[in-house]
Amino acid sequence: MPMRILDDDLLLTIRGRAAIHDRRNDYFDDDLADLKRAGYLAALVPADLGGPGLGLADVAREQGRLAGAAPATALAVNMHHVWTGVARFLHDRGDASMDWLLEEARDGEVFAFGYSEAGNDLVLLGSRTQARPDGAGGYTFHGRKIFTSNSPGWTRLGVMGLDDTTDPANPVIVHAFVTRDGGGFEILDDWDTIGMRASQSRTTVLDGAPAPADRVMRKVAPGPSLDPYVLGIFTSFELLLASVYAGIADRAIEVAVETVTKRQSMKTGKAYAQDPDIRWRLASAALAQDGIWPQIDQAAGAIDAGANLGAAWFRQTAGIKVRATETARDVVDEAIRSSGGSTYFNRSELGRLYRDVLAGIFHPSDDESAHATVAQSLLGPLE
């Protein structure tokens, strides 16, 4: 059985706030405070560093439960867990270079993911942001990051940028961390989306944000890399993201079952749960959803066990992310079709899930990127 930190009462409280945050388009400060008190932000901190020691498979399941209560809260917290997942990935493989991050997460710091850039379909393989050497081993970062979840709440931001000036013939992607109190950035108040509103994933403009030498984690050549740091980012991001959307799908089925059990047909006088077409729709949704969690469990469990699949991790985890997000969209759609026109109102939880689940298509790896990854694994690189 997966280890748990989140109790049912806490999740019920968080669920009760989700619609309010969505309607107001504001941040989930109250949820974050409760999750901190519960020790959830330190979930992946190993026992030898004073944490509860949950594995990636445990946290993936917990993220699914949290997403079933409040998808936007889960999505934003995900970006914190991605970084603790990277640090744990390295720690478990004998690399202590990010133990500081695990210790800071244990002590209450909140991490966010400042990697996404408009038009950058290279994702981890390249960057539009400039990383400028500061002369003391550190860097300052200059560029525009989009979809920075946890914008109002983070205290530490992981960033990447391109240094093509130190050695123009051998440019490097610099991965580092900046702090909120270090300055050199502006967070725009531009998050007004149709879904995932409480995540407040605002644009972050970096204009000299400093990362000292001891917070520069990697300098990697642009392009594909099997550096454990890159592998840790990719696998943690994809699997935890998949778990959020799997949790949304679980909740959609649950709400639809409750709805069709109560809703009565004038034509037959029976609950819609007795309608063969409705039963087929929900059974179809459940059949699709039943295939997702075993994939997440298997891959996350393999990472916890220290498996070394090399480049195969990219294909496997990108595929799981795409299957989870696409299945979740189909599941929510079937739940809405089964539950009737009331779901078209903003007050409907299913209506909100319908808006939230759409965000899954925009996260990397997107459908096109995942297909390119799989094609390369099968056919080799494009000439």
From TrEMBL:
This protein is called what?
Answer: Acyl-CoA dehydrogenase
GO molecular function terms attached to this record: acyl-CoA dehydrogenase activity; flavin adenine dinucleotide binding
Q: Which Pfam families match?
A: Acyl-CoA_dh_2 (PF08028)
Native species of this protein? Xylanimonas allomyrinae
Name the domain of life this protein comes from.
Bacteria
For whether the record's keyword set contains Transferase, the answer is: no
Q: Which Gene3D superfamilies match?
A: Acyl-CoA dehydrogenase/oxidase, N-terminal domain (1.10.540.10), Butyryl-CoA Dehydrogenase, subunit A, domain 2 (2.40.110.10), Butyryl-CoA Dehydrogenase, subunit A, domain 3 (1.20.140.10)
**Classification via CDD domains:** ACAD
Key words, A-Z: Oxidoreductase
Residue ranges of domain Acyl-CoA dehydrogenase C-terminal in the record: 240-363
Please give the InterPro entries that the UniProt record associates with this protein: Acyl-CoA_DH_C, Acyl-CoA_Oxase/DH_mid-dom_sf, AcylCo_DH-like_C, AcylCoA_DH/ox_N_sf, AcylCoA_DH/oxidase_NM_dom_sf
